[in-house]
Amino acid sequence: MITCFIRYEIDPFKVAAYDEYARNWGQAIPRCGADLIGYYSPHEGSSTVAYGVYNIKSLADYEAYRERLRNDPLGRANYEFAKKEQFIRREDRIFLRLASAPHAELI
Prior knowledge:
Shape: globular
Order of helices and strands: EHEEHHE
Number of strands: 4
Oligomer: single chain
Number of helices: 3
């Protein structure tokens, strides 16, 4: 299992547009085969940094998932929404694996 972390630099005056974008991915991403952890928007501190995080089995599964997402009606519409509204200034994607498991239980 690998986790994809997407770091967005967003327009601080268009956080509401990013939130709509995030809610749309909340529907499309699981439907297309990834385990969505969530999309996060600014709350305190920086008003320009946001994240999307999801798990996927492998990079090969990621490629198939991306193809399904490109063909998904809501996925396509969400890409177009971001392009039209231009609230994303920069997007960086990194894939990491969990190295700290197993975790201790809370006492």
